[in-house]
Amino acid sequence: MKKFILFIILVVISQLAFGQTPIPGGNVSGNWTIANSPYQINGDIVVQAGSILTIDAGVIVSFEGHYSFTINGELNINGTNGNLVVISATDQNVGWSGLRFENSSATSIIDYTIISYGNATGSSPEYRGGGIYVSETDNLTISNCVVTNCSAIGSGGGMFIDNSDITIDNCSISANTAAGGGGLSITNSNPTILNSVIEDNVTT
What we know:
Radius of gyration: 15 Å
Order of helices and strands: HEEEEEEEEEEEEEEEEEEEEEEEE
Shape: globular
Largest sheet: 13 strands, parallel
Number of strands: 24
């Protein structure tokens, strides 16, 4: 599994130089397709409440700096077993701020996706949830995903869940680092976790 993840990340990095669609900071919605991939993120982006962003199988999303991806509305990431979606950072040392689900009542899905090099810094709550941060959001299913090489100076290097009863199914959360809960940190929540592996994470 680790060799496979490393191979995928190296392939993605080699493809980032051929970026086709720059995305400035601001609100995002609509459909991101493989024909316009990779998408290069050049600022903080937000899926507003009442809006929907769909990301198709095979799409690469590359953060060009330490920018955030906040979801107040609906996010559907539709990777497949043979055509994963990859969300990462061009500069692995700088990273990006991770997927941040905040106060969303919409139904969102993340399927067959690799999330890597998220880096949660700053003050509360930005320093929690390096790869995925979930707060006050129940209708989220994360399945067949890999969250790896993410970090947080607070809790939840891979993922942080607060006041949210989400579902995690058939996922790998590995090689992440945080001050508390290197792989996964859960507060005031009752998530459903099925068929998943949480291993080789570091709590500093």
